[in-house]
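Predict structure. Chain length: 127.
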Amino acid sequence: MGGFFFFLFWTLCAFGVAYLAAGRGRSGLGFFLLSFFMSPILGLIVVLVMRNLAEEQRKEAQIRREHEAHLESIRAIASKPETVVVTPPKQQPSASVADEIKKLAELKEAGLLTEEEFAVQKSKLLT
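Prediction complete.
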């Protein structure tokens, strides 16, 4: 009777290792046979040491999807017609502030501007 329970436990452990191996992208049948004929502990160690193929495939698929999304956005940007914005050059003042003040001073000396008008025009130029 004890041998039957030991055999049942051994088989259930071998199925557990096979289930774990299948979930990690490995052959469930192969790992069941390894665990059943050798040892479930040995099969478990081998499954855990080997790379997780299923996880690697998911990561590769995710990277591929992201890469395709990036390429698609680049294609969308490249296919848009280029719009060139041309801004007209800013007009430079015809004379500097110092030249304008000099002209105002000449007008004041000529008597065409009063002292108050000169001061108002000069403050406008300086601000």
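Summary: The longest helix spans residues 53-79.
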